[in-house]
Target: Phosphoenolpyruvate-protein phosphotransferase
Amino acid sequence: EQAQLTRLRRQPTRTVDGVDVRLWANAETRTDVAEAHALGADGVGLYRTEFLFMQRRELPTEEEQFLAYRDLVLGMAGRPVTIRTLDLGADKADHTGLALRSEPNPALGLRGVRLSLRHSALFATQLRAILRAAAYGPVRILVPMVSGREEMLAVAQLIEQVRAGLRADAVQAGDQVELGAMVEVPAAALALPDFVDLVDFVSVGTNDLVQYLLAVDRNHEALADLYTPRHPALLRLLSELFAYARREGIGVTVCGEMAADPDNVPLLLALGLRDLSLHPGSLLEVRRAVRAADFGRLRRRAATLLRVHDRAGIEGWLART
Ligand code: PEP
Ligand code: MG
Model:
């Protein structure tokens, strides 16, 4: 079993009918990045920057962030890396004092891009470090907890200001940095046409999207049975989002845990997804699931999938793949 998986290290992530699927890695530590590279990940699809801010009281400097991001870029040796801007707040603990200490409803509170935009000097420092690291290889910037155009516009404008500052200081920076939004607040999926001109790609964070779409706390033990991506509403939302992204020519990736479960691969491919991002520990199992899948057949069965009425219907559909 393990030997079988190990052999997949050098195999392409291609379906039985010859469709290439890109597997990106969710990676934070040096070890993750090395593993992602060794397993042939197509890039880093989600680099969470919170860990640079957690377990400490003082904020990381621009130089400290720059060095961490540059390490990441160099570690992937020319494959693109997606750096998510700070997503503190809610379930992400914070000791720097940036996030509010107590909020009545943290999941609906000051977190992600909302927090960054309230601290624009700090946000600018992070963007400056990212743009500087982008001089060493392909970098994409990903913005968490976006709900609509205003936030993406504010971020795009701040990036331009930071860029101008770097030019004025004659500091080296990458000039081909793509900008993307996380789709994890349901409003972002519905409002994507309002800000599609501002983004090169979107990445679906199903961990939060399931939480907000189904109104089920992602960490609530007593509700664990209700917290599942196998809900017809989620599948329909994803189906429309993927089709819209394809029509508009922007990239779309799923980077939540949904993409790390090989049993979900037929669902995601049926809905038209070709880019999955997951922690390196699941990469080979997911590659195996992709290599066992028939993309054309799954696409033809998508209409049936979108007509199920409940979770049992989804499981039944899966059992027939
Ligand atoms: C998500 O919400 O699916 C996601 C990838 O982000 P995080 O788990 O860091 O909130
Ligand atoms: Mg999230």
In short: The first strand starts at residue 22 and ends at 26. The first helix runs from residue 2 to 7. The chain has a mean pLDDT of 96. The radius of gyration is 19 Å.
